[in-house]
Amino acid sequence: MQDESIFDELNEECGVFGIVGHPTAAALTYYGLHALQHRGQESAGIVSTNGDRFHIHRDMGLVTEVFSTETIERCKGTVAIGHVRYSTTGASELANVQPLVFTFARGEIAIATNGNLVNGDRLRAELEAEGAIFQSTTDTEVIAHLIARSREETIECAVKEALNRLVGAYALLILTNEQLLVCQDPHSLRPLSMGMVEGAYVFSSETCAFDITGAEYIREIEPGEMVILDDRGIRSERFAPPAPRSLCSFEYIYFARPDSDIGGINVHSARKRMGVQMALEAPVEADVVTGVPDSSISAAIGFAEATGISYELGLIKNRYVGRTFIQPSQMMRERGVKMKLSAVRKVVEGKRVVMVDDSIVRGTTSRRIVQLIRDAGATEVHVRISSPPVKNPCFYGIDTADREQLIAATHSLEEIRRAIGADSLAFLSPEGMLRGIGRESQEKNCGHCLACFNGDYPTVIEQELVGEGQR
């Protein structure tokens, strides 16, 4: 997806990776973060421990910019956690680079999280009223303060007490010099999996990081589960009863890498099936199908195969430009399409083109891409979106626009079509999306969160957030 398709405004994008019991823990964490780079390009960090003290390296930039052979070698120890970040809460600055590290009565603690707290602002205000001083503007520091203030005797009990005050989405890695705690929110809104490599346990936001580190997938972390790893081994406890699973649908639609598996389902295969469903729901007479690189290519292939229309690379991505939606700069967004995409004239010239994309938020990027294809000589441009219309803000770690900026919330299908300049436009239905993903679950919505499509949020939403989202 491009600068102003869904994640121009709906930016989630953080990734966590952790490993316990490996002599080169920091190096494997580096490779894991490199595999998760698509989830956040603003900053990266690793904290490792040899059981005595933390070794920390964090900075702004890409993984390959932040770390060198020397910095990795300085991160000694057999246990490490890492993080790549896009700022959803908190500014894009060094103070907010994770893992965040704190020293309190129990010793050192480092926290890396993917997600967002619905009640984070309220908890922060309560803590500040009680005298807490914050060094960053992230929700992660709120969690640290809650842990530090607990009177429970053990760190795991203090973490459980803290987590039971949280509402929202969080996949957490919490490191001390004695333990690694791996926690998943009761709804499993964010993915988090466990694997093993050379006798060491690894944890990652996506399984693609297991491939690069040579780890074998074991299972997903369950809703409301805390996995504890220390000198006693590995054990699993519940800090909360599991709520109905509500995995973010956009993990399958956009966030995750195509070579990742979520819930035992390959992401590329799911996207391809969504393209097939799109072809069944909204076929069109055309000469060529093209996907908007990269996340829409799988769906475009599925659409082409189902319709019998030839799939071609009608749009080419400039590989030396980052994913501009992760750069929170309006200038980058405005210029992002021309920087990132080119239409292949010999493919689209004189042709009726089906342009498959994964989503639309404000419509400005879609309009620019449609114009790119027309300028290259296409006679018709038909837009097919392999997800339902985004009509509602997200409060779970996706940096959402005000509702009035979501074009599908304020415009009819025909009005959107005219706004983006397409000859025809269709979105995939929620039913078709779930059928395409193929999760065989008896839970509501097959275990997915559909709030951005239908407004049915899996948790209670703070009233002030609802007001902000409705602006």
Which CATH-level-2 architecture of the largest domain?
4-Layer Sandwich
CATH superfamily label of the largest domain? Aminohydrolase, N-terminal nucleophile (Ntn) domain
CATH class of the largest domain: Alpha Beta
Percentage of residues in helical conformation:
25-40%
As laid out across the biggest beta sheet, the strand order is: 3-2-4-1-10-9-11
How many helices? The count is 19
- The domain count comes to 2
- The residue-averaged pLDDT reads 90
| Low-pLDDT segments | 1-10, 323-328
Strand content: 25-35%
The helix/strand class is alpha+beta
How many strands, what sense, and barrel or not for the largest sheet?
7 strands, antiparallel
Radius of gyration: 22 Å
GO molecular function, one term: amidophosphoribosyltransferase activity
Cofactor: [4Fe-4S] cluster; Mg(2+)
Family: In the C-terminal section; belongs to the purine/pyrimidine phosphoribosyltransferase family.
Binding site for Mg(2+): 295, 357-358
How would you sum up this structure, described in words?
This protein is of the alpha+beta class and 471 residues long. It has two domains: 6-250, Aminohydrolase, N-terminal nucleophile (Ntn) domain (Glutamine Phosphoribosylpyrophosphate, subunit 1, domain 1); 267-469, Rossmann fold (3-Layer(aba) Sandwich). Helices cover 32% and strands 25% of the residues. The chain has a seven-stranded antiparallel sheet. A six-stranded antiparallel sheet has the order 5-6-7-8-12-13, covered by helices on one side. Strand 5 (100-104) and strand 6 (107-117) form a beta hairpin. Helix 6 crosses helix 7 and helix 10 packs antiparallel against helix 17. The chain is globular, with a radius of gyration of 22 Å. The model is unreliable at 1-10 and 323-328 (pLDDT under 50).
